[in-house]
Specification:
Blueprint: E1 2-5, H1 13-28, E2 33-36, H2 43-51, E3 55-57, H3 62-66, E4 72-75, H4 82-90, E5 94-97, H5 101-115, E6 119-123, H6 129-135, E7 141-144, H7 147-151, E8 159-164, H8 170-181, E9 186-190, H9 195-208, E10 213-217, H10 223-235, E11 238-242, E12 257-262, H11 268-280
Parallel strand pairs: 1-12, 2-3, 2-4, 4-5, 6-7, 6-8, 8-9, 10-11, 10-12
Helix pairs in contact: 5-6, 9-10
The protein binds iron/sulfur cluster.
Length: about 280
């Protein structure tokens, strides 16, 4: 069997950098390492980090951090709000800031417009850490997930800026933007969509010309993995989404050519195991 990897797959730069920071702190082993929220949308990778000592805390658990000597707290790629940062600083822990530079850019834009009296409209998943973090930089903020939300704003601001989540689908953002342009007199639009998602989608499309079937590797709770799998179902006759190599369906060992794609939060280690098991014909 031939196994072909997508030209672009797996962890994006932001998640990769946060993972590497966590790995190096855990390897040093000289302090207690916490992450503020789950470091990555991938249960396999998280369980591995937790088994090596990483502890995930949320805002309500920060007292735990204050009680530990030489604690380090990692801020994940999604970033945090200024209020959350204050609470982290108050614990006395060393802060390891892994906010992705692209998310930092969105935070700065939100803060700039808020300063000028704009209402900030954030488009994306309402409960996603990236958006709740950015919301903390705004005085007046509205969160919208889709064009239906955009049609039913809780109030219509005189001037507003629309800022996209870095991982929102382009088409969804276009619809939201068009809807709001017809409602708000002065609307600025900041498209902050990260190319990471599109790059993985394009690579999947290229793979569909070369393979009989595709395996999409990624966490069940990863939005971009879910979107990648939706595309795979349209592009390939045979496709499956798995979290790790133990989930490779038996029938996938019978194809001549199998492609591997992976979401932006799937670590290389998991992709490598899937690839290796397929090549060796191991059905765990
Ligand atoms: S998807 Fe893009 S913006 Fe989000 S963490 Fe990855 S590199 Fe950063």
């Amino acid at each position: 069997m031939e196994v072909i990897r997508a030209a672009v797959l797996g962890c994006c730069a932001g998640v990769q950098s946060a993972l590497q920071k966590a790995e190096s702190l855990l390897e040093k082993g000289d302090s207690s390492v916490f992450s503020f929220g789950p470091l990555i949308h991938n249960d396999n990778a998280l369980n591995d980090l937790y088994s090596r000592g990483l502890v995930c805390v949320n805002e309500a658990d920060l007292h735990q951090v204050s009680q530990v000597k030489n604690a380090s707290v990692i801020i994940r790629a999604h970033g945090i709000s200024p209020g959350q940062r204050e609470k982290l600083v108050a614990t006395g822990a060393k802060i390891v800031d892994c906010t992705c530079p692209r998310v930092l850019l969105s935070q700065n834009k939100a803060a700039e417009f808020a300063e000028k009296g704009y209402t900030v409209i954030l488009a994306g998943e309402k409960n996603h850490g990236e958006l709740t973090g950015i919301a903390g930089f705004c005085r007046s903020v509205i969160l919208v997930e889709n064009s239906r939300d955009a049609e039913n704003l809780p109030f219509v601001p005189e001037k507003a800026v629309l800022i996209s989540q870095t991982t929102i689908a382009r088409e969804e953002f276009r619809r939201i933007s068009e809807t709001l342009s017809g409602i708000i007199p002065h609307l600025e639009v900041c498209n902050m969509i990260c190319p990471a998602t599109k790059e993985r989608q394009d690579a999947l499309r290229a793979l569909s010309e070369l393979c009989d079937a595709v395996i999409v590797v990624g966490g069940k709770n990863s939005a971009n993995t879910k979107r990648l799998f939706l595309s795979a179902q349209k592009l390939f006759r045979f496709s499956v989404c798995i979290e790790n190599s133990s989930e490779i369906p038996r029938e996938f060992y019978g194809f001549n050519t199998v492609g591997i794609a992976a979401g932006a939060s799937t670590p290389e280690k998991i992709i490598f195991e899937v690839e290796n098991n397929l090549k060796k014909g191991i059905n765990v």
